[in-house]
Batch of 2 targets.
Target 1
Amino acid sequence: MTKKIGLIVGSLREHSFNRMIAEAIPELEASVEYEQISIAELPLYNGDLDRGDGPEPVRLFREAIQRVDGILIVSPEYNSGIPGVLKNALDWASTPTKTAALLRKPAGLVGATPGVKGTILSQQQIRQTLEAAQAYVLPFQKMYISQVMDKVDAERRELTDETTRKYLQRYVQQFIHWIDQVPALEG
Ligand SMILES: Cc1cc2nc3c(=O)[nH]c(=O)nc-3n(C[C@H](O)[C@H](O)[C@H](O)COP(=O)(O)O)c2cc1C
């Protein structure tokens, strides 16, 4: 069966560079299906609301993650770390502990910034959060996109830089391969 990958963007901005990168992925690697999983409607995490299925946006968000074979997170870096909106979303997906949407879920990380360091620090924190939630984060491989404004056509919302396109395609292919390795890790 064709695999399905969930794309989660860690920015709520309409003209987000990271959203542009996420939107480029299906065209770069068409061997799988994709689903955009929005975090925009999630309330702030509150343990008092985290009962049963939780609030409707949370239920839909968790279900979307459970429906896909793996998630690719495409996120900016804020103040040398994970954007609050993304951390909030991952916290909702990390409970209830025994049946959490992130539990044993293959995950890959991509990040884009106008800066020169390519979201290294943000990705370290996202990885740490995902590992705490017992997701299987693709090891070793990294996908950092620096000076992103020079690599996209912002008006047409296209990733134009050929080298970045090639590396991103390779990263997604490695991630798809990683999804197949995960059952062996569980065995
Ligand atoms: C509050 C805030 C903090 C930021 N901190 C960083 C940072 O630590 N490192 C970085 O590379 N960019 C930083 N930026 C710049 C973002 O990378 C830039 O705004 C980027 O376009 C956001 O991603 P988006 O285009 O997907 O929304 C920061 C931006 C904001 C609003």
Note: The radius of gyration is 16 Å.
Target 2
Amino acid sequence: MSTTPLSVAVIGAGMAGTTHANAWRQVGTVFDLGLPPVRLHTIADAYLPFAEDAAQRYGYERAVDDWRVVAEDPDIDIVSIVVGNALHREIAEALIRAGKHVLCEKPLAD
Ligand SMILES: NC(=O)c1ccc[n+]([C@@H]2O[C@H](COP(=O)([O-])OP(=O)(O)OC[C@H]3O[C@@H](n4cnc5c(N)ncnc54)[C@H](O)[C@@H]3O)[C@@H](O)[C@H]2O)c1
């Protein structure tokens, strides 16, 4: 089992985004798969107070107001996309181009 942490970010800190933020804290307790530790890295929301509140509430290191900061950060491995449906495609494509693993909320695109 790797002991190198995987760094996670969540884009969108609304109703479903905060659920993702909380779920990432517990992923290692749900599946007995020998997962590496998870580093709770960044929450991004266009409305910064939402990102800050979620980061503080769920123990993430950083809050930002632009998802591009997540795409450009080489330290981030995995990203939950939890914004409105019309934004999914642009963000998912940029993250994949940047080499991130992506978990995108449904629907994947309009
Ligand atoms: N799987 C499920 O059961 C389930 C349930 C609810 C919602 N969803 C999905 O989750 C997604 C989000 O839904 P929600 O109910 O949390 O919406 P929401 O409106 O509560 O939250 C969306 C958040 O995205 C932020 N945002 C808007 N534009 C942004 C941008 N350009 N960059 C960063 N952040 C931005 C908003 O400020 C808001 O905080 C949708 O795709 C929805 O279909 C899935």
Note: The longest strand covers residues 38-44.
